[in-house]
Write a structure and sequence with these properties.
The protein is of the alpha+beta class and 164 residues long. It is built from 4 helices and 5 strands; from the N terminus they run αβααββββα. Strands 3-4-5 form a 3-stranded antiparallel beta sheet, with helices on one face. The chain has a two-stranded parallel sheet with strand order 1-2.
Length: 164
């Protein structure tokens, strides 16, 4: 059991470097309610913690010039409470790109939705979504793949309906 805990949870030659705070794709992603929360820092921290040494925070936020294995993650959609206690489901979507010395070796998109419409908290549901997304990232890193239809702007906030 101890050896299992010491084994990194991701399949990579060295540690995968990620940003210490996961950025939003652009200024249009997320409302003011979303941006007041620190769930994007929590997402990064949870990925690092659950990787058991397989993922580390990079020394710089711009990963494009770093050698080794990097995982660029961007939040492309996010929604949380904003209309009182009944504001519908909350969600978060990320896109990620894995690179080895600058060469793309995988990319993926993940979306998590909370089915709890009754909440007065703006940040609490996003924290839970960050936890679930962190698990999804770790699972994907065990066996990354390339999505031929991947595009950073494929699901811009303005293009996706709230019910989707």
């Amino acid at each position: 059991m101890l050896t299992m805990l010491a084994t990194p949870a991701v399949a990579a030659d060295g540690p995968v470097q990620i940003a210490s705070t996961i950025p939003y794709l652009n200024e249009q992603v997320g409302s003011a309610n979303v941006r007041q929360c620190d769930w994007n820092a929590r997402l990064s921290a949870m990925i690092i913690e659950r990787s058991r040494g397989g993922v580390v925070a990079a020394a710089q936020e711009d990963l494009s010039s770093l050698p080794g294995t990097t995982l660029t993650i961007k939040i492309t959609r996010a929604h949380t409470a904003g209309g009182g206690s009944v504001s519908g489901p909350k969600w978060g979507r990320i896109r990620m790109e894995l690179r080895e010395d600058g060469v793309v070796t995988g990319n993926h998109s993940v979306r998590r939705v909370s089915n709890r419409p009754f909440t007065l908290s703006a940040c609490g549901p996003l924290d839970k979504i960050a936890d679930a997304l962190a698990d999804d990232v770790i699972a994907w890193l065990r066996k990354p793949a390339i999505d031929p239809n991947f595009a950073w702007d494929a699901d811009l906030e303005t293009a996706e309906s709230a019910a989707d």
